[in-house]
């Protein structure tokens, strides 16, 4: 992790001072990405995929006029028909690309976006190699060889991890190798090696550009979704996260528990010791919780001294054990040296028959108020 942090932050200078050491692996693979980042990046990938598809659908058939004027018959007609077919495929991709914020759908879109011109490149090469072109026709025919370079350059507009960039660049490189093998001999072997090296270099530059975009997106997402005082999720991002977790829970029928936490007698801290002391208590509480939670758990500052803890995959009994462990380890310390306590309400999406995440929050909030009315420093997990 320290090596990757040095590479991304020090050597390449990607968002210096902003990318945390724990986030550098996010630039290598999407496996550890938080759901909010995944959703926002998926929407961005789909939008850019549709933009490219629309652009290619217009430009691809336009070049057919040049082919018809310069290339011999029936080659020009065959290429024109192929271009119309490819244009129709781009239109279909732009129209039917789903905007559901899911990464697999974005992957399919980008894969098709690169597969369509790669197949066009292979098919056009098979057509062109049957003809001996000279003069202007040879120059126009040679232009088809630059399509892999255009594809790999276009990869740079997508915010991708390093592994994703290499995966999407592979078909273009493979298509170039396959077509080159058809005409490869001792005379043109050096030319093939030089072109392949240039393509690989272009793929590497595009990968760096894609990873750089992703690095700045990570920075912006961190700044947008975090509470500036405590560093945990803000209420707005917490609500967005709840919507995603509820959708995942409904699809997989996995439990989703939520704890509504209200720090006891917090107003007295601000009144007697000042808001700076109160801010320090909030920061320390958030820091303690973040260090003790599972990777999948999410702590949200709901407002003031109120926090919401999201526990995907945890049933009520498990959630109660988590809260008991956190309370036993301590929630922090008040300025006067006494232990910090909280009134906590816990609810679960399916066991409590909540209609949606809003009902889940309301129920946990109601149980939290019952804990306060019962004398504070308590946990209520049922009605």
From TrEMBL:
The keyword Membrane is assigned to this record: yes
One cellular component term from this protein's GO annotations in UniProt: plasma membrane
EC number, UniProt record: 2.7.7.65
Key word Membrane present: yes
Pfam family, one: GGDEF
One GO MF term attached to the UniProt entry: diguanylate cyclase activity
Xref: SUPFAM superfamilies: Nucleotide cyclase
GO process terms (BP): cell adhesion involved in single-species biofilm formation; negative regulation of bacterial-type flagellum-dependent cell motility
Bilayer-spanning residue ranges: 49-69, 75-96, 105-124, 136-158, 165-184, 196-221
UniProt enzyme class: transferase
Source domain of life: Bacteria
Matching PANTHER family: DIGUANYLATE CYCLASE DGCM-RELATED, REGULATORY COMPONENTS OF SENSORY TRANSDUCTION SYSTEM
Protein's UniProt name: diguanylate cyclase
Organism this protein belongs to: Chromobacterium rhizoryzae
Organism lineage: Bacteria, Pseudomonadati, Pseudomonadota, Betaproteobacteria, Neisseriales
